Amino acid sequence: MTDMAFNYEVIERDDWGALASKMSASQSALITPKALANIKAFNDQISMDDVLTIYQPLVSYIKLRYAQYERNFAERQAFLGRTDHQSPFVVGIAGSVAVGKSTTARLLQLMLQADMGEASVALTTTDGFLMSNEQLKARNLFDRKGFPESYNMEALLSFVNDIKDGAAEVRSPRYSHDISDVLPNEYDVFKRPKIFIIEGINTLQTSPNSPVYVSDFFDLSIYVDAATSLIEHWYISRFDALREQALVNNDPSNFFWSWTQIPLADAIKIAKNVWKTVNLPNLEQYILPTRERADLVLHKTVGHVIDQIWLRK
Ligand SMILES: Nc1ncnc2c1ncn2[C@@H]1O[C@H](COP(=O)(O)OP(=O)(O)OP(=O)(O)O)[C@@H](O)[C@H]1O
Ligand SMILES: CC(C)(CO)[C@@H](O)C(=O)NCCC(=O)O
């Protein structure tokens, strides 16, 4: 038992993986050849062993929680004598910059879509609720990008409130890692999916001027966790890969283009400094302290391999 896992049941990888074989066909998550092909096309670094051992039982667990949610909703409607639409089942995913939140979220979306249909499972990130680089600079907050004060929390809270309100249509502002900024006047539009996944570093954080938290709107919350030294390594590897891609694409409008104009060693040195002065303090001061609020923790080790699942008791 890990010392830090207070109030959690810690399930080791092999025990979690063994759950898949014990499930009935209706409980188990469907992994079609098409879903596998989609996963590989999305990120060929993902280990298929993790897909089967970790993600298949995880998707089954989400399906189970969703079925409970549906029953609960129907009973409540019957009690109140109402026939409104069921609002989406909201899954929040939190964790450090570069720990793999968006990869996990996209994987869960692809696997749930294979089971429930494409339109049923939506995904968005809270990155779009960051203030634009221009707004951050005007407020002298550019070096605090990703910290709580760099987000428009009011807009994020209003967005999750609209989802839970069962709004016929909601939209979230888009963020581009290519330009490292919010895309002005660009939105993703969602029309009442059954499951809504929201990933972001701040999904389990409190909001300074609001009595409610974003996580009050979650039906299930997941924290992606790993040792800090590993996350730094993943951050630098991703930086290196994105710099390489900008070089190959020869695209000066790409945010990473400027890093191709200086020697690799110098670029890596700067990225390490951004990690040390921005993302690491953010992790230690504001993100990691929210871990214990999650219903489920995916604990990763070397190579993104998930070695433990922590389930809230
Ligand atoms: N399961 C995995 N297997 C292999 N590589 C992975 C896995 N998950 C994430 N990665 C890699 O780790 C890096 C960080 O992942 P990702 O971009 O998903 O992180 P993130 O937490 O969403 O980051 P940010 O908060 O900055 O958006 C990427 O290079 C990604 O390809
Ligand atoms: C957009 C966020 C805040 C979160 O995904 C992050 O990727 C980021 O840009 N952090 C700021 C420091 C940096 O450039 O890494």
- Please report the first level of CATH classification, the CATH class: Alpha Beta
Strand order of the largest sheet: 1-9-8-7-2-6-3
Average of per-residue pLDDT values? 93
Shape category: globular
As for the number of domains, it is 1
Ligands? adenosine-5'-triphosphate, pantothenoic acid
CATH topology: Rossmann fold
Total DSSP helices: 9
Class derived from helix and strand content: alpha/beta
The string of secondary-structure elements, in order, is EHHHEHEHHEEEEHHHEE
Helix content: 40-55%
Can you name the CATH architecture? 3-Layer(aba) Sandwich
Q: Report low-confidence residues grouped into runs of 5 or more.
A: none
CATH fourth-tier homologous superfamily: P-loop containing nucleotide triphosphate hydrolases
Strand content: 15-25%
The biggest beta sheet, please? 7 strands, mixed
Taking the alpha carbons of the first and last residues, their distance comes to: 14 Å
Please tell me how large the radius of gyration is. Answer: 20 Å
Protein name: Pantothenate kinase
Organism: Weissella muntiaci
EC number: 2.7.1.33
Family: Belongs to the prokaryotic pantothenate kinase family.
Could you explain how this protein is built, in words?
- The chain has nine helices and nine strands.
- It has 313 residues and is of the alpha/beta class.
- The protein has a single domain (9-312), classed as 3-Layer(aba) Sandwich (Rossmann fold).
- It has a seven-stranded mixed β-sheet with strand order 1-9-8-7-2-6-3. A two-stranded antiparallel ribbon has the order 4-5.
- Strand 8 and strand 9 (306-312) form a beta hairpin.
- Helix 1 packs across helix 3.
- The two termini are 14 Å apart.
